[in-house]
Amino acid sequence: MKILKKILIGIVSLIVLILIVAIFVKKDYAVEREIVIEKPQTEVFDYVKLLKNQDNFSVWAKRDPNMKKEYVGTDGTPGFTSKWDSNDDHVGKGEQEIKAINGDTIFYELRFIKPFESKAPAYMIAQNASATQTKVKWGFKGHMNYPMNIMLLCMNMNEMIGKDFQTGLENLKGILEKK
User: What is the mean pLDDT of the chain?
Assistant: First the structure.
């Protein structure tokens, strides 16, 4: 009985310690990657502002070619929503809505439904780098509530998601520079 009591006290102490540490762990994170594309800004922006085109360069869209897709609204305008549903846990179920388009920036809201629920603001920026070059930035911000934020100590979101953003941008560069 004493051994069981010591084990129980040890487990409770570990849980309390984890909860205390989680109080001091950041809850917000941001991921951004960029690439220069050898095309004029208007051509690049006209392509990336269409959510349907993300199916051509996004890593997540390519992970499950059998995912169900649904589109609502007029692509390239605020309110347009792209919905997806996949049995692949790396893709899951969710939707992305264009919230605003300001000059060279498209603002989205990502709404994940499964495997976990969350919302995250995202964006793509297509800036003039020269008359024939465009710098494209792709990023988003995330938030993990307490006590789940403790996972940010073990997960480098910038590295994990950043790789997918970088691959997607390289795919985008390949598509646009072949045109």
Answer: 90
